[in-house]
Design goal:
The structure is a homodimer. Chain A has two domains: about 160 residues, 3-Layer(aba) Sandwich (Rossmann fold); about 100 residues, Pantoate-beta-alanine ligase, C-terminal domain (Pantoate--beta-alanine Ligase, Chain: A,domain 2, 2-Layer Sandwich). Chain A is globular and about 55 Å long. In chain A, the strands form two sheets. A six-stranded parallel beta sheet of chain A has the order 1-4-3-2-6-7, sandwiched between helices. In chain A, helix 5 crosses helix 6 and helix 7 runs antiparallel to helix 8. Helices cover about 35% and strands about 20% of the residues of chain A. Chain A is built from eight helices and ten strands. Chain A is an alpha/beta fold. Chains A and B meet through strand 5, helix 5 and helix 6 of A and strand 5, helix 5 and helix 6 of B. Strand 5 of chain A pairs antiparallel with strand 5 of chain B, so a sheet runs across the interface.
Chain lengths: ~280, ~280
């Protein structure tokens, strides 16, 4: 596996790499990332994984050696690990997502999705992949990236991939390592709440308020207060009311020092989302 | 010459075109555009010219037939003429330039440079040219595009090309056709004012206020009131005061129904600008 540390090195590698799949990451890699890499390898001639840490204080400083070992074991062709300052936009240009970025994480973390959008446009410009792979766990981020790739007419298609979970249902996240064992048990209530909503929807419960309440109830049993529980249109991310045909139910909750997010899709398949405007 | 009307058609053409130079235009082509095309042909295997009208009310609806004839005569390999709605960013993603876009035209025409930035990122994404050519006349636009190409780590280099002028010195512009003969005579005062500043600078006059005053005086002789006369740093576009080592002197003025802009570089060569941050 090639470890590429400069934009020039990536462009040279790219020139002879054939069909390329990109997995953009922030490091601290886990089995969720590995699933993205596996898929990128299956669908392309070569998979490249970018590792660019962000300034998220909840995120442990990634262990580059462990990350590289994981990528090597899964057969990635290359890792792109630029210095953070190598991607600094000196003139202050940024990519501003539209209304998709306003609610939920956009409201909770001002500027975060602008930084994500700018970074991904840089990475797509540098790597020029045919396909790029993002996990469903960061659902709004996935949708913002799919939207910007279409809006800016980039040549790359953005593939959403299902969330990988531990046996308790907890969505894998680099942040989980900061949970105590007791907090981890509590945290599994997040995915159980979402599953309750899924099962209820399949059984005919389509009222957006009721679906949100179901999730909240499960969280309350475990003494968890959600920062938000949303039942929104999965294409526009606008909050829904009344009966819904399709929805993304999503939540954020603080557990100890860790802020976790998760979501479930109702009435629509992840792979059909990008086609809808 | 190929006339390509869809993104897909451009991508297919691009795949076998070798080294490509892009000349992005808004149509209503004149000898200034032709000079960009000539240069794109000299420096690449093929030149492609995009024609995407903007909503500028001052700009006459472009004559597609005349535009295509000019491009054919100059040897462009392809013209890309999408329908305006084919480039509409349905999700509202846009590219926001940094502080370079705040003064001058950015202040006079709110939103204009955001639209320019978003459009050029789309075009660079669709065409993936090695080089793209922009005229010096729209100097702030040129600088914004150079800055975003660097900030977003796009693979294309942006080449600034000298303004083409008519024998009176008037910068060629699609808008000039709306000038009466008398207005055209007056309009030549714009370039004469800038030339006065150039000559004074070469003769040792380096005070920013004095350089601005020189331009204003020339305009006043002809009864023209400038919307602005700026003496700014050519890299940052921040307004200067006191003695200057390098500058861009630029102006905007309304003549009849037509708003014209022009500029001159002092103490720096156009081709050296992009390297400076």
């Amino acid at each position: 596996m090639k470890v590429l540390r400069t934009v020039t090195a990536v462009r040279e590698w790219r020139a002879s790499a054939g069909a390329v799949g990109l997995v953009p990451t922030r490091g601290a890699l886990h089995a969720g990332h590995a699933a993205l890499v596996d898929r990128a390898i299956r669908q392309n001639e070569a998979a490249i994984v970018s590792i660019v840490a962000d300034e998220d204080p909840d995120l442990r400083s990634s262990s580059e050696q462990a990350d590289l070992a994981l990528l090597e074991a899964h057969g990635a062709a290359a890792a792109f690990i630029p210095a953070r300052e190598d991607l600094h936009p000196a003139h202050g240009t940024h990519v501003t997502p539209g209304t998709l970025a306003e609610p939920l994480e956009g409201a909770a973390r001002p500027g975060h999705l602008v930084a994500v959008a700018t970074r991904i446009v840089q990475l797509l410009g540098i790597v020029a992949p045919d396909l790029a792979y993002c996990g469903q766990k960061d659902f709004q981020e996935l949708r913002v990236i799919q939207a910007l790739a279409r809006d800016l007419r980039l040549a790359t298609r953005i593939i959403g991939c299902p969330t990988v979970r531990d046996p308790s249902g907890l969505a894998l996240s680099s942040r989980n390592v900061a949970l105590t064992e007791a907090q981890r048990t509590n945290a599994s209530a997040l995915s159980r709440g979402l599953m309750e909503a899924e099962h209820a929807f399949e059984a005919g419960e389509t009222d957006a308020d009721d679906l949100r309440s179901l999730v909240r109830s499960e969280l309350e049993i475990w003494g968890l207060a959600a920062e938000y529980v949303s039942c929104a249109d999965p294409v526009t991310l606008q909050e829904l009311s009344g009966p819904v045909e399709r929805a993304v139910v999503s939540l954020a909750a603080q557990i100890g020092t860790v802020r976790l997010i998760d979501n479930a899709l109702l009435g629509i398949r992840l792979q059909d989302l990008d086609e809808l405007q």
